[in-house]
Design brief:
Shape: elongated
Oligomer: single chain
Number of strands: 2
Structural class: alpha+beta
Helix content: 55-70%
Radius of gyration: 26 Å
């Protein structure tokens, strides 16, 4: 988890350096909409959307994993209740 966080921070730093070193105004067009905006904003928004789209496929797996963990914990609790207590130790 730490490695992923470090890689993400480094990648974000590289994207930020690229955006800062390339100032300018660009026209963004989509269908009938257009806007003149800074290339910095375009790069950061594109990066954020890319990260979001990259995370989307993992969401169903995370939900399935959490549900399976809850099921296994419930099974373990039921199993522990059904076990008889250990016999007392007599000295």
């Amino acid at each position: 988890m730490r490695l992923i966080l470090i890689v993400l921070i480094v990648l974000l730093g590289v994207v930020a350096m690229f955006a800062i070193q390339n100032p300018g105004v660009v026209t963004v067009r989509f269908l009938n909409y257009y806007a003149d905006t800074s290339i910095l904003i375009v790069i950061v928004v594109s990066f954020g959307l890319g990260v979001l789209v990259g995370l989307l496929p993992g969401i169903p797996t995370a939900f399935r994993r959490k549900r399976r963990i809850r099921e296994l914990e419930a099974d373990l609790a039921a199993h522990r209740k059904s076990e008889s207590p250990p016999p007392p130790v007599t000295p």
